[in-house]
Amino acid sequence: MAYKTLIVEIEEHVCLIKLNRPNALNALNSALLGELADAVAGANSNDKVRCIVITGSDKAFAAGADISEMSDKSFVDMFGTDHFTDETESLLRCRKPIIAAVAGYALGGGCELAMMCDFIIAADTAKFGQPEINLGVLAGIGGTQRLTRFVGKSKAMDMHLTGRFMDADEAERSGLVSRVVPAKKLMDEAMGAAQKIAEKSLLTSMAVKEAVNRSYETTLTEGVLFERRLFHAMFATEDQKEGMAAFVEKREPKFRDK
Ligand code: HXC
C-alpha cells in the first residue's frame, strides 16, 4: 500500500517503517498515526514479516504530536474523539517484536511512540524529551506512565516538569534505550538485531513479548506464574523440539513456527 507519510519496505523478514514528514520533523499528525497503525497491523498479519523496525530521519525520529494540528482543538474535540487512542492501541496490539531505531529528536509523542515499541536502539545523536509542559499540556499517549517505568520517578519527573532533553548516553545509563551506536551505524545495528530476531521461532518471540509486557501489568508472583505457564506451553511446539535437538546435535536450529 502507498502511504503519504511513511516509507514501508520489507527486507527479508523485517518490515522497515520509516516516518516521512521531513518538513515537520516527522511530527505525528492524524494522517501519519493512522498510516502507522495500518502499516503495523499489515506487518502483524503478513506471514512474511517476523520483526518490525520503526525509524525516522537523521534529524528526528519524531518531534512530537503535530502542534499545528492540535493547537485549535477543544476539549470536546479531544475527549469526544478519544484523540489518538485507536491509533496507539492498534500499535500496542501488534504481537510481533517492534524495534524503534532513534536518531535525532524523539520528543513528546515521538518519545512516547519509541517507548511503545519493544526496545529502543539509539544513535549517539538521539535526544529524548517530554517537553509538553512548555505548551501548557502534558504527555498524552503514555509518557508519564512509560517513562517512569523506564527511568524511575525522579528522572521522569525531571523530564516532564522541566521539559529538558536527555542525550543518548543518559538514556542508555537510565535504561530508556538498550544500546547506543554511532549515527552512521544505526540502521545496520537495528536491522541486524531485527534479522537476528527474525531467525527465531515467531511463536517464542511472541511469548517473550507477552511475558515481558506482563511484568508491567501485574505482581511478581502472577507474572512469574504467567511466564511459567508459557514456558510449559512451549513444550507443545515443534520449535522447542527443534531448538533443543539442534543444540544437542551441535547445529543451527531451523524454526518453522509450529
Ligand atoms: C508541528 C513541528 C513540530 C511539531 C517541529 N515542527 N516540531 N511542527 N509539530 N511537534 C516543524 C517546525 O514548525 C518547522 O516547520 C520544522 O518542523 C523544523 O523545526 P524547527 O523548529 O525549525 O527546527 P529546530 O530549530 O532544529 O528545532 C527542532 C526542535 C523544535 C527542538 C525539535 O522543532 C521543537 O521544539 N519542536 C516541538 C517539540 C515539542 O514540543 N514536542 C511536543 C509536542 S506535544 P517550518 O514550517 O517552520 O519549517 C506532544 C503531545 C503528545 O507531542 C501527546 C498526545 C498525542
Helicity range? 40-55%
The CATH homologous superfamily of the largest domain is termed 2-enoyl-CoA Hydratase, Chain A, domain 1
What is the number of independent domains? 2
| Spatial sequence of strands, sheet with the most strands | 1-2-3-5-7-10
Question: Which ligands appear in the coordinates?
Answer: hexanoyl-coenzyme A
Structural class: alpha/beta
Largest sheet: 6 strands, mixed
Low-confidence stretches: none
Q: Radius of gyration from the CA trace?
A: 19 Å
CATH topology of the largest domain: 2-enoyl-CoA Hydratase, Chain A, domain 1
Number of strands: 10
Descriptive overview:
The mean pLDDT is 97. The protein has helices at residues 30-45, 67-70, 75-80, 85-92, 109-116, 143-151, 153-162, 168-173, 186-198, 202-214, 220-233, 238-248, and strands at 6-11, 14-19, 51-55, 60-62, 98-102, 105-107, 119-123, 127-129, 165-167, 179-181. The protein is globular, with a radius of gyration of 19 Å. Helix 1 runs parallel beside helix 4 (85-92), helix 6 (143-151) crosses helix 7 and helix 10 (202-214) packs antiparallel against helix 11. The two termini are 29 Å apart. It is 46% helix and 16% strand. A 6-stranded mixed sheet has the order 1-2-3-5-7-10, with helices on both faces. It has a 4-stranded mixed sheet with strand order 4-6-8-9. It has 2 domains: 6-198, Alpha-Beta Complex (2-enoyl-CoA Hydratase, Chain A, domain 1); 201-249, Lyase 2-enoyl-coa Hydratase, Chain  A, domain 2 (Orthogonal Bundle), CATH 1.10.12.10. The longest helix is centred in the N-terminal third of the chain and has 16 residues, at 30-45. With 258 residues, the protein is of the alpha/beta class. Bound molecules: hexanoyl-coenzyme A (HXC).
